[in-house]
Every structure is written in C-alpha cells, then in structure tokens.
C-alpha cells in the first residue's frame, strides 16, 4: 500500500515536472506556431532570477512566484520586439534566431553571474508515507502545476482576453478583420509564455543544479512533450506529459533509469508515427 | 579608419608583448592548453586554465626554462569533442607546441591522445579518471580508482556499514568506477545491493531515491557527473534522506558541486581526491596566498583535484625539461621516466615510468559549509590499477586504454 502510494506520487511528480517545463513552450507554440529554441534558457533565467533574488534577501516564495515570472516575462517582451516580431511566419528563420539567442543567453549569464551560484534548498521538509520518505516540496510542485494549468485554462476559457487569444489562434486573418490587434495579441502571448517558463524555472530551481547550461537538460524533454501533445496547447501538453511522465517513472521503477528514458522516447516516437499531428490531432480535437 | 592606420595601431598594441618576451631573452617555449572555458564543462575548465596560466607565470618569474620564457596558448573547445581534435592538430602542426596540457572528460582525452601521438607531441592529461591509459607519449597526472576509491571505501565502511547502493553516470567513467567501488566493498566483507546508471541529462531522481529507500543500504556512493546530476543531491536532501542514509562520492567536489548546494544539502558527503583546497600544509597555504595575490577577486575555488593537478602537471613537465636540458620530446620523456618528483601544494607527486601515471597523496574529506573538511591523509599512493595492466618499459609502443579488469 505504501509502495503503491509512494510510486503513484513519484509518477505524478514526474508528470507535473514535464508539464511545468513544457507549458511555456506550448503556449508560444500553440498560439503563434513559433518554435522557441531558447525555451531552455528561459527556464534557466527563471531559476537564476529566483536564486539571485533569494540571495538578495527576498522572501523565497516571492522570489519564485513573483520575481522570476516577472523578470522572464519582461525579457519575453523584449525578445518578441527585437527578434520574433521580425520573423513571423518564417519558421526556420525563427528557429535559427532563437537558437542564437539561446547561445547568447548562456554566454551572457556566464559572463555576468559566473557559472556558479549558490542555490537555495527546497522548503517544506519531507513527508513520510509508510516506510517511504518523500519531499514536501515535490508535493507542492504537483499542486502548483495543477493550479497553473487551471489558471491558464480559466483565462483562455472565461475572460475576454482569452476569447481574443483563442480567436487569433484559430484564424488570425479573420480576427484581424474583426478589429483584433493581432500583433499585440502575439506579443502578449509570447510574454505570457516566457513568464510561465520563468515561473517553471524558478519552481524547479530548488530541485536541480542551477548552472547556465541547465536549459539543455530540459529543452529536449519539453519539445518532445509539446510535439507529442499536438495542436491543442493545454489538453495536448497535459495528455502527453501524463503519458510520457508515467512511462518514464514506472519504466524506471520496473527496470533501470536508462531504460526508463529509452522507454519514454520509444513511446514518443511510436506515437508520432501513428499520430503525426500529435495526440490532439486525433483525440480531444476541439479542446484548448 | 584606414587599413594602414589600423595595422599601425595593431602593431602598437602588440609591441609591449613582443618587448616583454624579448626582455626574457629568447623566443618562447610554446605550451598549448586545451580546456573548456565555455559550455557545460566550463565549471571544471575555468579553474584548470587559471592554474595552467599561473604555473607558467611562476616558471617565467623564476627565469623561465633553459633561459627561455614559457608561453601558454589557450584554446577553448567549448565542451565540443570535435573542436578538441581540431585544436590538438593545430597545437601539433601550426604551433609546434613543446607539450599539450588538456582534456577533461575521458572522451576528450581519447579524442586528442591519438592525434598528439601521431604528430609526436608530448601530452599531459591532468584529470582524475578511471585509469588504464597506456601510452608512452601521454602522462596522466590525476588520481585513479586504485588511489581514491581504495581510500574512500574503507573509510565509509568503517564509519557507516557494509551495504552500499551505487548511483553512477552512464558512461565509461561511471561504469568502471562503480565496478571498483563494488570490488573494494567486497574486499572489506561488504557488498553492493544495487548499481543504477543515469544518462547525463537525467534531472528527475525521484524514482531512484525511492528505490534506494526500498533497498535500505547502509551508505550510498555516487559517481554522478555534471550539472544535471546535481539535482540528485538536492532531491535527496529534499526527501529528507540526508539524516537517514549517509552518502559518499567519487566525483562530488571535483568541480563546483559543493558551491551549488546549500550547506544543509551538501554537508556530510564524504569524498576522496588527491587534493582539496582546504589541505592544511605550509606549501598549500603559500600557494593559495600567491594565487590570490595574482588573481584577486577572480580567484576560483579549487575544490577537488582537477585544477591543482593541472598546476602539478605543468610543474612535472617543467621538471622534465630542466632535467633533459632540452624540449625535444624523446629526451623529455626519458627525463620524466627517470623517476622525477615534485613537491607541490598537494604533497609529493612522483612519476611512475612503467605507466606514465603518478604516485600521489590521497585525502579523504567531508563537505562542510560549501567547502571541505579534510579527515584523513594517505601519502604515496601508487597507481596500482594501471600498473596491473600496463608496462611501458617492456612495451614502449603501447597505445591504448585498457579497461582494467576489475575482479568482483
């Protein structure tokens, strides 16, 4: 019983982490069809802003939940203005530009802050489940991811801004004809995506090594999740994260960590062979 | 600006450099250093570069070698193996370097070792690694498992118990080192309850931590490598495991791992290297004072052995050149093979001519407040693992890395 519960929590935690690191990318990709190869560095900057804010004496929760998304969101506005806006509809050029941006950000952070910052440890202590001990912060991450997902969904579903965003996403030309300033919608979406990435980076910071190159460890995973998920940003990303996260975690339990990784990639490849448009190309097609 | 003015200006800028060398007398002896100053491995590379440069400056301040100054040419392979090969070729053919110091991972070493062998360019690899390189042209000056793991395991067995759970990086270093850990545990009457390998980009260690709890070992030994794997230590502490199962590591502290963690996450992890910055000896204190005087606020934290071994590697090479009275490769190799030793900050380092590895001092230390607290000191540990598979006296043309057959 303990074992089942503890394993279930680990699986949920794996899913939540995948979802968290992919959501920002999914928003940008889903809204704008922009493939942001600097996504990993947005996560890294989120982690850095949180760590530096904590070092400067800011309360840990404020640093993670407010400072980090704010900083990276602002950077998102800047990047959209300077780079993305000039390359709309040119997918390959955008990839190249954001890749360059990713290298530049790694270099800049290394130069300004050095490659070593003293991280902060996870708050909330540990929780005992029968014979197993797990981190309270891990449970918080699961809850935080659920809340974040619900918040994004509620904004898109119930607010006017959400309606406009969804309209622009479905048919930008028609939305523009109806008087929607699509450029502004895109700019805001990109900033929102960046802010969510920054938040995700800050939230994983106490559980990972915060170094300038940390983005590379996450970016492949988040791309696989978003692409496997397909067009619908929330339903797609959550279903893909649910599937891949549990395959990875349970695979690791049943076999070895190496095979756990392999299994996850195999499932992603087979899925994309069967459903080239991603999970939401076939199922939940009308969802968000 | 016109081109002519530009050239004149450039000439003016370059002039002081030329004059400085002229002041030392003759044209410089070129040493090439190939270490990653950018990319994922820069946490190891930057302190190593600082120490190579510093060693050269000290040699020059003492009058250079054979009356000539030593000039270090630094190449940054950007954590990219392809660039390693390219820069090694450049060092041998264009720079005609007297020696090349460099390589951090075993993969980078195996990329440049054959190149430098082919071009007959002397090569120093100054990193802790898994042992077994047998090549007359290549000097390995870092510690190997028979030196560090052999000291680490008895220490932790005596302290904590006989059942070990090993977590290691999934490439040759981790695979081979985990075998050594198992071997030494069995020799002491203990055993490994499990060994888990992790690809270098794994960041979620939750399932692994739960598996360890189910296996109930007395101690966990980690041979994890790189920034992503730092996650393991943080998630371990977050799960409240630190107070339940103690941890030792063959890699922690080799780079800046101890600085990335908070004291409550890192404190108490036991490690073994051939040097720690905290080694308390007059030579080491004097060295650190000189380094700080030179680099000021930019002085890197040296942590475990990698940066210090780069300094010692330069010292050994310089000693070889002095003894040979020449920078000719064959003469220097012969001089180095005559049993050279240098007394440096980590203690005495003696070259073993049978293997081109070194006999060195090993220290066991525990992490304390982002640094180390040295617990034990073992002088003169020979590289017995490589000695068991390599004899360059009998077989001077050997050119291989032998995977030391660990009988477990």
TrEMBL record, chain A:
Domain of life: Bacteria
Main location, first listed in the record: membrane
Membrane-protein topology: Multi-pass membrane protein
Family, similarity comment: Belongs to the binding-protein-dependent transport system permease family. LivHM subfamily.
One Pfam family per UniProt: BPD_transp_2
Keywords per UniProt: Amino-acid transport, Cell membrane, Membrane, Transmembrane, Transmembrane helix, Transport
PANTHER family, per the entry: ABC TRANSPORTER PERMEASE PROTEIN, BRANCHED-CHAIN AMINO ACID TRANSPORT SYSTEM PERMEASE PROTEIN LIVH
Keyword rRNA processing attached: no
Compartment(s) where it occurs, according to its Swiss-Prot or TrEMBL record: Cell membrane
Transmembrane segments: 12-30, 64-84, 96-117, 137-156, 186-211, 223-244, 250-275
Keyword Transmembrane: yes
Protein's recorded name: Branched-chain amino acid ABC transporter permease
Species the sequence originates in: Belnapia arida
UniProtKB/TrEMBL annotation, chain B:
Highest taxon of source: Bacteria
Keywords assigned: Signal
Span of domain Leucine-binding protein: 28-370
InterPro entries assigned to the protein according to its UniProt record, in alphabetical order: Leu-bd, Peripla_BP_I
Signal peptide: none
Homology family: Belongs to the leucine-binding protein family.
The protein's name in its UniProt record: Transporter substrate-binding protein
Species this chain originates from: Belnapia arida
Higher taxonomy: Bacteria, Pseudomonadati, Pseudomonadota, Alphaproteobacteria, Acetobacterales
């Amino acid at each position: 019983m303990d074992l089942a519960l503890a394993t279930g929590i680990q699986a949920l935690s794996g899913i939540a982490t995948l979802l968290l690191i992919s959501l920002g990318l999914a928003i940008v990709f889903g809204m704008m069809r922009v493939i942001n190869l600097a996504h990993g560095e947005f996560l890294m900057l989120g982690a850095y802003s949180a760590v530096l804010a904590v070092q400067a004496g800011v309360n840990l929760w404020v640093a993670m939940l407010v400072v980090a998304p704010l900083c990276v969101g602002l950077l998102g506005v800047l990047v959209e203005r300077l780079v993305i806006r000039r390359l709309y509809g040119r997918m390959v050029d955008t990839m190249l530009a954001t890749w360059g941006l990713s290298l530049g950000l790694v270099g800049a952070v290394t130069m300004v802050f050095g490659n070593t910052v003293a991280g902060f440890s996870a708050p909330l202590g540990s929780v005992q489940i029968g014979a197993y001990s797990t981190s309270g912060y891990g449970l918080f991450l699961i809850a935080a991811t659920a809340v974040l997902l619900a918040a994004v969904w509620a904004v898109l579903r119930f607010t006017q801004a959400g309606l406009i965003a969804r309209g622009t996403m479905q048919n930008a030309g028609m939305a523009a004809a109806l008087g929607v300033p699509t450029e502004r919608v895109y700019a805001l979406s990109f900033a929102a995506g960046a802010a969510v990435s920054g938040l995700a980076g800050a939230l994983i910071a106490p559980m990972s090594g915060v170094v300038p190159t940390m983005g590379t460890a996450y970016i492949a995973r988040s791309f696989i999740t978003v692409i496997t998920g397909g067009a619908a940003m929330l339903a797609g990303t959550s279903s893909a994260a649910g599937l891949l996260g549990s395959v990875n975690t349970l695979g690791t339990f049943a076999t070895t960590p190496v095979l756990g990784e392999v299994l996850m990639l195999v499932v992603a490849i087979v899925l994309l062979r069967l459903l080239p448009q991603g999970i939401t190309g076939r199922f939940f097609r009308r969802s968000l | 600006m016109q081109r002519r003015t530009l050239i004149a200006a450039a000439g003016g800028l370059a002039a002081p450099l030329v004059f400085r060398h002229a002041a030392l007398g003759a044209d410089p002896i070129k040493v090439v250093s190939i270490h990653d100053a950018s990319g994922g491995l820069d946490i190891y590379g930057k302190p190593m570069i600082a120490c190579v440069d510093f060693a050269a400056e000290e040699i020059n301040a003492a009058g250079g070698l054979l009356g000539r100054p030593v000039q270090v040419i630094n190449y940054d392979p950007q954590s990219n193996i392809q660039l390693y090969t390219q820069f090694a070729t450049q060092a041998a053919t264009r720079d005609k370097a007297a020696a090349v110091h460099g390589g951090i991972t075993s993969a980078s070493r195996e990329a440049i070792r054959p190149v430098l062998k082919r071009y007959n360019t002397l090569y120093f690899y100054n990193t802790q690694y898994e042992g077994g390189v047998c090549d007359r042209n290549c000097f390995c000056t870092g510690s190997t498992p028979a030196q560090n793991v052999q000291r680490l395991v008895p220490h932790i067995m005596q302290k904590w118990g006989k059942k070990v759970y090993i977590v290691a990086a999934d490439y040759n270093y981790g695979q081979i080192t985990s075998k050594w850990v198992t071997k030494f545990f069995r020799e002491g009457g203990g055993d490994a309850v499990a060994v888990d390998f992790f690809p270098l980009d794994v960041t979620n260690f939750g399932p692994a931590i739960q598996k360890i709890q189910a296996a109930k070992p007395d101690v966990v030994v980690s041979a994890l490598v790189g920034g992503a794997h730092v996650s393991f230590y943080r998630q371990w502490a977050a799960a409240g495991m630190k107070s339940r199962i103690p941890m030792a590591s063959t890699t922690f502290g080799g780079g800046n791992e101890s600085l990335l963690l908070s004291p409550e996450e890192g404190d108490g992890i036991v490690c073994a290297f051939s040097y720690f910055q905290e080694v308390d000896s007059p030579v080491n204190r004097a060295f650190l004072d000189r380094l700080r005087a030179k680099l000021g606020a930019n002085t890197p934290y040296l942590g475990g052995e990698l940066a210090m071994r780069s300094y010692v590697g330069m010292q050994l090479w310089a000693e070889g050149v002095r003894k040979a009275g020449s920078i000719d490769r064959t003469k220097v190799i012969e001089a180095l093979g005559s049993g050279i030793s240098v007394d440096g900050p980590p203690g005495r380092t003696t070259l073993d001519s049978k293997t081109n590895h070194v006999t060195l001092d090993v220290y066991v230390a525990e992490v304390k407040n982002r640094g180390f607290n040295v617990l034990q000191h073992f002088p003169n540990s020979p590289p017995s693992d490589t000695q068991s598979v390599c004899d360059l006296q009998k077989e001077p043309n050997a050119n291989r890395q032998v995977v030391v057959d660990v009988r477990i």
